[in-house]
Amino acid sequence: MTKVAFCFPGQGSLEAGMGREIAEASAPARDVYRLASGASGLDIERLCWEAPIEELVDTEVQQPALVATSLAILAALRERGLEPDVVVVWAMNGAPLSAEHGFPARVFVPGYFGTNAVKWLSRLTLTAERPQSLFTTRLYNRRVDGELQPVRELDVHAVIVQPADGTRLTRGRHAIKGWAWSHWPVRAVAVSTDGAATWQAASVAPRGADHQWQAFTYAWNLAAPGRYEVHARATDERGRVQPLTGRNRIHTISVAAA
Prior knowledge:
Blueprint: H1 20-25, H2 27-40, H3 44-49, H4 53-56, H5 59-79, E1 87-89, E2 91-92, E3 95-96, E4 106-108, H6 134-138, E5 141-144, E6 147-150, E7 157-162, E8 168-169, E9 172-181, E10 186-192, E11 200-201, E12 203-204, E13 214-222, E14 226-236, E15 251-257
Parallel strand pairs: 8-15
Antiparallel strand pairs: 1-4, 2-3, 5-6, 7-9, 9-13, 10-11, 10-14, 12-13, 14-15
Helix pairs in contact: 2-5
C-alpha cells in the first residue's frame, strides 16, 4: 500500500503561479480553486495562477491561497488513488471548522489521539528530533515500560451501544452491539454478561480504510430474570488489551431482565 503524508505549506511556500500545473492536470483540483473563490469572495484562481508575488503575499490573500492550494493537491492525490495518512482539515460535517475545532485549518492524524491534531494551523516545521515545547515534551506524555513517551497511537477500545445502559429487557435472545477501534486493527472483542466472571467471543467486522471503527455483535440468550453487568473488552493486532482501569477501561453497562 502506498503511504503519503500531506503537509500544509507555510507562508514561505507562497509562489507566483502556484497550483497552476496541478489544476491543469486535475479536474478535481480545479474544482477546489473554483469553490475556494466562491467561499472566500476572492478570485483565488487568478491570484494563485496569474497574480504577481506582490499581490499574492497580501495579508488577506495568503492563507486562503495556501489552503486552496493544499486542498487542490489533496484532491489531485485522491484522483490518483493516493489517500494521505496525514491531512489538513478545513471542514467537518459539511460545514467550515468552528473556532472551537480549529478554524481555519487543523492537522488530522488518523489513528492518533486528538492531542496530535493541532488546531488553528498557521505553519508546519519539520525537525529531525522531537522539538522542545509545552505540548510536545511537558504535556501529553505517558510511561510505557518505564520510559516516558509522547501520547500518540490510540489505545484499544470497545464500547457497547446496544442495549443502552439501564435498559429493561425481556427474556429471550438479544444482540449486544458496539464499536471497537485502536491505532491498529482490532482482532477480537470479548463480551461478558456475568460481571466479568466468564468471557465469550463476539463477531468483529474487519477494519476498512482510513482507520474506521469496527462493529462487533454478540448473540445473548437471556434466560433468567435479574440484573446483569455486561462488559466489552477489545484486543488489537499488537496484543494490547483493554484494561480494568484507565482512560480506555473495559466498558460496562447494567441491564435488567423481567
